[in-house]
Amino acid sequence: MPRSRELLAIPVRRSTWQRFVYLGIGVALVAPFGTLAGFVAPVLEGALDESAAWTVASVLCFGPLAMATGMLASVRDLEIAAVRRLLGVELADAAALDAQISWSTRWRSAAWFVAHLVAGGVIGALTLVLPPAAVSACLAPFASGDVQLGQLDATVPGGPASAWLVPLALLSPLALIYLAAAASALLARIAPRLLGPSPAERLAASQRHATRLAERNRLARELHDSVGHALSIVTVQAGAAGRVLDHDPVFVREALTNIETSARSGLRDLDHVLGLLRDDAQSCAPTPTLTDLPRLVDSTRSAGIDVTTELTGRIDEVPQAVSREAYRIVQESLTNAARHAGRAPVSLSLNVGADELELELTNPLGEPRPRRAGGGRGLSGIQERVTGLRGQVSAGPDAGVWRVSVRLPLHPTP
Amino acid sequence: MSLGVLLVDDEPLIRSGLRAIINAEPDLAVIGEADDGAAVTPLVRRLRPDVVLMDVRMPVVDGIEATRRLLANVDDPPRVLVLTTFENDDYVFDALRAGAAGFLLKRARPDEVVRAIRILAAGDSLLFPAAIRELAARHAPAGAHGDGLRGAGLTDREAEVLRLIAEGLSNAEIAARLVVSLETVKTHVAHVLTKLDARDRTQAVIRAYQTGFIAPG
Fold it and tell me: Which of A215, A218, B5, B45 would you call most buried, defined as having the most Cβ atoms within 10 angstroms of its Cβ?
């Protein structure tokens, strides 16, 4: 029967041991709270008897304190990562990274944290206590007089009468493994409820998803319409030109011009929409800012382009919105330089002043620049971003180099 | 005497291309142009074209509404050939239901364009039967079943003729298939159109699909 075979396979399954490790982390997490309880209990012993003092100390330390710890966002993130990796539970992604965690989510994380501590603590304690007790039990039939079971507060009489303990002792590690497997299976079952996104977060996430899909659909439709329109003109004009080729050269000449213009405008629309879609795809990752500039420069260098940079001012203090756009402008400028000047060296200077960010990118003018109609997505993309931030941009040949200069106000007034 | 064509499209380059293609044919002539559906009815009254090539999407009055107005307001109206950029455009079916006699993709080859105009003007066979079948299949009302045309009172022979019309057969082909004279077929077709209250073969076929008389597919 497959069911019983599955049960038999538990001790040799990799997942069982990974889950054991997760419980082991729980043991490690118990330690600080246990230590704290060890400090608190003697203080309380003045007012209460010993066992009551320990009970109160444990409840205080493992109750409110552990729960407060479990509410921390970083602890929640760690638990989610550990649960995914070690318990093997698929957890849906919660809110966007920068979103605030709601209180209900914090309470659920706290409950999870405490459950982790309790399960880990119990299994951990048994793991420490059982093996020495089992060894003592195996030796008991050969001993004379009472035998203490490891560190347990229990004794068994020595001699052959205790032989029945031996098989029990030998089976106890196996029992522990099954117990741990059961405990972690229980944890795995409740994990989605406590660590997964709340209904409100799910709703928000699916709304974001729907908005993005709607936007993409709209873009796709626009692209379909505009490129379809352009290609229809191309087809009709080309077909007509073919028909009148022999007796109306004037029409043919005009048709060729029309075909060229329409095809170009279709390509421009393609460029534009694909650019928007690409930006959208990247928006799932955190948007890079000027602080990510070194990485961008490195990757450009690894593409074989020599980039010299001169960065002055407090780049990390540039407002996020400006910083993001400035990063994109640098990125697009580098792409343009690579496209037009090949592997010619590029120098980039960026200066953050009191009210303004100045950005300048130059590369030597090589061959006469091929005229790309409409500037593709390159220059027009930069222009759009600069205009959006009420900045200024100039681009063109200047003293033997191609120079792109951008000035962005750091605090654009609406 | 050549067939007169009216071009209606808001894109001047589509019009100039189609004009060159049509005017290159000895038996066809573009006799007027308009860049919006609003101008169609008065122009038709004045120029009396045989066929109107009508774009679907236009800024003020679209091709569907222009077709509807034209057929409602002009006696003995011309055939309307709807122009579309995309095959799977839902508007095309709306235009056919509004009374257009056929549709044509703007990317059609020049010889397909002129053939479509001639077929429509002659009116004795269906333009692109396969495409119409596909459109009808996509727009077939749920739950339509075979007896949808019972009220029309078609004879068995007329029902058979309707099926052959939907397959795209011309009158001559139907005559050959049923081994009857061309005149007999013409009479059957005329009866079918009258009983279905259909303007032309396209409308009759659309009706047949819509009522489930012919199962799409």
Answer: B5
